[in-house]
Amino acid sequence: MLVVMQQGATEEQIEHVIDRLVDLGFDVHRSTGLIHTVLGGVGGKYDFDVAVFEVMEGVKEAHRIVSPYKLASRGFRPGGTIVQVGPLAIGGDAVVVMAGPCSVENRDQIEQCAELAARTGARVIRGGAFKPRSSPYEFQGLGAEGLQMLRAAADRHGLLVVSEVMDQTQIPLLAEYADIVQVGARNMQNFNLLRELGKQSKPVLLKRGIAASIEELLLSAEYILAGGNYNVILCERGIRTFETYTRNTLDLSAIPVVKKLSHLPIVADPSHGTGRRDIVAPMARAAVAAGADGLMIEVHPDPDRALSDGAQSVRPEQFEELMHQLQAIALAVGRTL
Amino acid sequence: MLVVMQQGATEEQIEHVIDRLVDLGFDVHRSTGLIHTVLGGVGGKYDFDVAVFEVMEGVKEAHRIVSPYKLASRGFRPGGTIVQVGPLAIGGDAVVVMAGPCSVENRDQIEQCAELAARTGARVIRGGAFKPRSSPYEFQGLGAEGLQMLRAAADRHGLLVVSEVMDQTQIPLLAEYADIVQVGARNMQNFNLLRELGKQSKPVLLKRGIAASIEELLLSAEYILAGGNYNVILCERGIRTFETYTRNTLDLSAIPVVKKLSHLPIVADPSHGTGRRDIVAPMARAAVAAGADGLMIEVHPDPDRALSDGAQSVRPEQFEELMHQLQAIALAVGRTL
Amino acid sequence: MLVVMQQGATEEQIEHVIDRLVDLGFDVHRSTGLIHTVLGGVGGKYDFDVAVFEVMEGVKEAHRIVSPYKLASRGFRPGGTIVQVGPLAIGGDAVVVMAGPCSVENRDQIEQCAELAARTGARVIRGGAFKPRSSPYEFQGLGAEGLQMLRAAADRHGLLVVSEVMDQTQIPLLAEYADIVQVGARNMQNFNLLRELGKQSKPVLLKRGIAASIEELLLSAEYILAGGNYNVILCERGIRTFETYTRNTLDLSAIPVVKKLSHLPIVADPSHGTGRRDIVAPMARAAVAAGADGLMIEVHPDPDRALSDGAQSVRPEQFEELMHQLQAIALAVGRTL
Amino acid sequence: MLVVMQQGATEEQIEHVIDRLVDLGFDVHRSTGLIHTVLGGVGGKYDFDVAVFEVMEGVKEAHRIVSPYKLASRGFRPGGTIVQVGPLAIGGDAVVVMAGPCSVENRDQIEQCAELAARTGARVIRGGAFKPRSSPYEFQGLGAEGLQMLRAAADRHGLLVVSEVMDQTQIPLLAEYADIVQVGARNMQNFNLLRELGKQSKPVLLKRGIAASIEELLLSAEYILAGGNYNVILCERGIRTFETYTRNTLDLSAIPVVKKLSHLPIVADPSHGTGRRDIVAPMARAAVAAGADGLMIEVHPDPDRALSDGAQSVRPEQFEELMHQLQAIALAVGRTL
């Protein structure tokens, strides 16, 4: 903890800051510069709010030195984490592709997707059974029945299943049918949900919120890790910016940054990250080139008639071509697909 | 629904768009311009995704004409809605102040806040019992015990209670102790929670998410209204931007915009909106000047020792002075406090 | 200067950082914590890039302690600056209204605006002669002829003139006709222009760029001050965010923040800040309530036919009503209009 | 032009909109829907502001149908533009690397950079002689002398030169020494500069502003094209978002989007786009994978001692390794380096 006092801060103001640091268990080192007095705190608690110091009278700025997350930090496992999902290793040499429709709509649709995914080298099928939709008038998902269809199609084709959980009451159902439980961007800071996912053992795919910093993403992962579940896969899926041509701005720099700050694997979702089918392929290639451990891609047999997110779902023939391109890129960065 | 075709779009592409519009129940009017063909769809479904058309081959742009929300729109109740909470009218002539600590910490703290609030003219006491915190190592709230303390203090001083619900399992508890149930910014798109809140009758204070557009805020309100609960109060509490000096950027323009687009009352939260005690007062004054129906302000007897959000909590003497300033501003815009 | 080393940073890495600090003239204090080594630098140069340290091997974070601006900081003139423009004081008790059309279009238009401004209590007339337009096909301004019309109308009605300079070659012309030279948002970091404006004596109204932090605004002011011209008025005119209903998001919190960090006066421009005539009035009131020293408001006799920015120009009758409202708000915050 | 009237718009309001459309030269088609009246305008002027219609009474929304840029649009040259710079083709099969220091500092530094660039396959050397700096106390560049050094080093090693122009008065100097004149992000909307660059023939590398939408980037290109200079190369170099770990957020999706909307070549600048040396390489690879026609990369013999932007400059050995990686990626997307 470092607190820099303003030029001309009074002795009383400095003492007040020192008192608060001592209250929090810090040993305080006081250093008097030409212009500013700096107070360094060593030891002390983790659970305090650095902003409290920033607005104290006489304070210029305050900085937390120790990262607010510990279990998610690279230092905790310098060699990196490989999340093992049955036979599949996420975070190892192979780039893992998870593909499928936005929502499970019916048996036919999901069967076509599973067949395509398996044939082209994807290892995991995705598909939503519970859909968070901005409008109450939009399709909300098939629920448990959708999960059963997804599981059955995956089993027929030797695929694993990832599907989204919308709140903690749905965890048992998801744990029954899915191999990986997905936390959507809107739930990245649903802390009750994160806490419950930490208490169970299914791997969790945690998506970055559209307004979440990389640090906040890692703090949300920390909630799950702190509960004892270390099988967390992060996912970059676009942040909200002023640009409107794309639905979100896919922040691919988050991939190398997360690799540096954390030991957890990270995948990219160019479908949500762009919202436009016509640029999913170049962004998928870019994500692999940037070091992503995997991709989550929406594909639909007939996207123009999809019940949700059809605009960002690629057509089957586009998906097939993309898988070929991705193999070349993976090779170029020393990985396999 | 309006679809503008690209210059040089083929007849086949145009037909494909028309087919999809017809599938959705639209009567299609085709208009051939010098450069672009425009397709207008009349009637048709509400629950479709306009982006699906945007990425169809040959399409330049597509626009939804009818607002995606109906019950929340100004047209639905041109005269505006007054939410009646016991004796208190929110959305009428009086500007309603809701004040109190970020979290309920102990009996003493909440008693001091309640006494202050009642004495200075606030009508509602706020205080969190369940706290969504970015880090798992921070204080998470006192739970039910906190709600009881809050209720007791409010009753002693003739105040109403607003407190945050974190997920749908907590609704019964909140409904028992609070007069207004608050949905926090992180939960603005927790659609299961919104749907459940629509099925009960307690007024709901719905905060804008930090990355939510005004349209998305109104769509979230629509979830509650669609369930039959029309007692919804909106709250502007800051959006996330590139500026880092303030915790968020309080978007006061949302107040007149919501007044134009919707019939629902809207309050402002300058505490979360700025994250800094030292600018809460000017922003509170500005919110009233911009037409806010109320304010939510964090106050704490000893903010430097607050268990959460101390940086943005004003001191009791600051609060008292602010209430005087607000009376003058309210008067200047023809309202009372 | 403070550099926090990563946990496990090597002695070699620490030495490398110390060497660079010494190169920059800093006295280095080394403090070894339980987890992190912290290096404090005292004295040293101003003109270095803190990011260079952030990416050095073994470094966790680096912070500049001394503000990068000096002349613009509140500490330089704790009592605040009043910019005197002829008989007019900007930054004193009176809130100064600057009003007029986006562009000078013709003699009639500017005469009507000047008459309205003078009659209702505005003190300065605005009007662009050189217009920065996103598209090359839009109206680009009348140039010198426009400035002459503006000056003549102002003189007839006892008003002062503010008008925008687009590059340094135009300074002499602006200095001849205007009392205040405006630097537009797109030019906030046109450093050659700022430097030249520092060498002359006309007051400068410096607008915040749409992607500029408050610190960057103050750094741009520093360019002008460093040249010897202390007559700088800052202007908040909206920043770019994800919200699209308004053209920009007017960041009113910049007003109290600038008041805290700097001695310079600050005005608000709710016309550009919102881009919509229908919410200019509430945001103008809010700006005064937040402590603005003045307002810049676009008004046009016939906004639907304005050659530029008609959407954000209020009608004459709206302006008149707004001036009445502003008087009440100014009074409520202890100022005059 | 399409104007959608609000539900319940009066005949008078509709007539007012029609009148304004007619004034602008549009043929108006009126279509009365169940809920909304829609007015379509065919023909008409380019140079009007669509927002003027948005705020007219009774209007719900308004959309411009024809793109505001014409010469920059893909439709103008469906086959794409190759900018020929001496022997070098930008926008063809080969991915062009432009490398060099942020600023030209001295003869030795620039010689080392030129030798490295030429040896590893870069074709263009970059280096600033005039530096836009946020603070007036930072290094501002060597000016004409820097340009001479850059030219000499380039000539010794058979490289081309790109360097930044800060305002229109510097164009002759840049045109003398550089092969490509760069317009920096801060100047993307310096319209006087753009207009002058349109009147001369040197190729222009136009960087996207940190708050500029893709449409605004293309509109700025239009200024240059409209003057008769068709040799424009666009450059994505990061936009400003809420994420602070990186200096900017490199928006790689702009690459495929520009390829779709425009015929102009586009390169990426991962140095400015990230601000951090440690993630330049993955983002450079990603840019090529996304379809960039080239890269602009900052390299410095001793970045820790660079006079500007050292944090984002890679070391010579990092650059060499990166060039090998880029060859592999270029090959994987069917191009050469």
Task: Summarize the structure in short.
Chain A is of the alpha/beta class and 337 residues long. Chain A has helices at 11-23, 50-54, 107-120, 144-156, 171-177, 191-198, 214-226, 254-261, 270-274, 280-289, 316-332, and strands at residues 2-5, 26-32, 37-43, 59-63, 83-85, 88-90, 96-100, 124-126, 160-165, 180-183, 204-207, 232-236, 266-268, 294-298. The interface between A and B is large, with 58 and 58 residues.
Descriptive terms for the model:
homotetramer; 337 residues; alpha/beta; Alpha-Beta Plaits; TIM Barrel; 2 domains; eight-stranded parallel β-barrel; four-stranded antiparallel sheet; 11 helices; elongated
Describe the structure.
Four copies of one chain form a homotetramer. Chain A is of the alpha/beta class and 337 residues long. Chain A folds into two domains: 2-63, Phospho-2-dehydro-3-deoxyheptonate aldolase, domain 1 (Alpha-Beta Plaits, 2-Layer Sandwich), CATH 3.30.70; 74-332, TIM Barrel, CATH 3.20.20.70. Helices cover 34% and strands 19% of the residues of chain A. The first copy, chain A, has eleven helices and 14 strands. The first copy, chain A, has helices at residues 11-23, 50-54, 107-120, 144-156, 171-177, 191-198, 214-226, 254-261, 270-274, 280-289, 316-332; strands at 2-5, 26-32, 37-43, 59-63, 83-85, 88-90, 96-100, 124-126, 160-165, 180-183, 204-207, 232-236, 266-268, 294-298. The first copy, chain A, has an eight-stranded parallel beta barrel, surrounded by six helices. In chain A, strands 2-3-1-4 form a four-stranded antiparallel sheet. In chain A, α3 packs parallel to α4 and α10 (280-289) runs parallel beside α11. The longest helix of chain A is centred in the last third of the chain and has 17 residues, at 316-332. Chain A is elongated and about 75 Å long. Chain A starts with a strand and ends in a 5-residue tail after the last helix. Chains in contact: A-B, A-C, A-D, B-C, B-D, C-D. The interface between A and B is large, with 58 and 58 residues.
